[in-house]
Amino acid sequence: MDITENIDFFCLSHNKDNYYTMKNRFYNLGIKCTFYSGLDNDDSRLNRAFNNFNKRQMSITFGHLDIIHNFYNNSNKNYAIICEDDIMIHLNIKEILKKILVDFHLLKLDVLLLGYMLPYKIDKRNNNYTLKKLLHNNSFYKYYEYPEYQSGTQMYMISRSYAKFILEKYYMKFFELFDIRYIFDKIFIKRGNRALIYPMLAIEDDNQDDNYHRLCRNIHYTDWYM
Predict the structure, then answer these.
(1) What does the angle CA 164 – CA 154 – CA 29 come to, to the nearest 5 degrees?
(2) 3-class secondary structure, 112
(3) Fewest CB within a 10 Å sphere: which of 47, 118, 197, 213?
(4) Predicted model pTM
């Protein structure tokens, strides 16, 4: 079975160059992806931003929410994979996702991080990452519970039921979101039964200007990614 029969892919892309790069990557992987360019500058949800940084964070947050809204209301599939436009993707992601779909169900997950920010490798010394047990799982890939400070929405997978929860709790409450200054990866990936997969299936692209983003990429980069 083609995993895309049960998963919709979405990419939030504000940058035209990144859009063409990501479109080409998904094409080469044989995956149909819906792209969303984000909020227009005159979107009413941005009216209360008090500077450009805040406006950008709000735009990203509501961009993710709009994608989840689109998935829940316009798709009949059970899962969505949502990503940002500055990532490299595992060459065998379609094959790996066949197993992930089974594991996601067995673990009763709501959200699974497939790509995220992490400036070190996960090993036995990382006490804040607890391995989730799968009786059948002898795979190279492992699933871990992650701490509240975990950041990064480079790529993540959600269930339809979790999309419903997020929309009901947050979608129409953008003034409250603004007032307490939510950023997407500070709250929306911190609810429900959550896990991350390691090694990750998506990493930062190689054109990062920020030192932290570049470090996260270099720690985890292999030639598995395109």
Answers:
(1) 95
(2) strand
(3) 47
(4) 0.92
Answer yes or no: is 225 within a domain: no
Dist CA 145 CA 127 (whole Å): 11
Determine the 3-state secondary structure of 34 from DSSP.
Answer: strand
Cis bond before residue 119 (omega within 30° of 0)? no
Using alpha carbons, list the distances in angstroms from residue 130 to 122, 125, 158, 173, 220: 10, 11, 20, 33, 19
Instruction: Establish if 70 belongs to a structural domain.
Output: yes
Q: Give the count of domains, the chain.
A: 1
56 vs 61: CA distance, rounded Å: 9
Give 15-42 pLDDT, tens digit per residue.
Answer: 999 999 999 999 999 999 999 998 888 8
Instruction: Determine the Cα–Cα distance for residues 25 and 84; give it in Å rounded to an integer.
Output: 13
H/E run at residue 61: helix 52-74
- Structural domain range at position 190: 3-220
| Residue closest to 116 by CA, chosen among 150, 157, 80, 141 | 150
Assign residue 90 the CATH number of its domain: 3.90.550
Q: Is residue 132 part of a domain?
A: yes
Let me know if residue 226 belongs to a domain.
no
Q: How many residues does the chain have?
A: 226
Spatial separation of the C-alpha atoms in residues 213 and 206, rounded to whole Å? 9
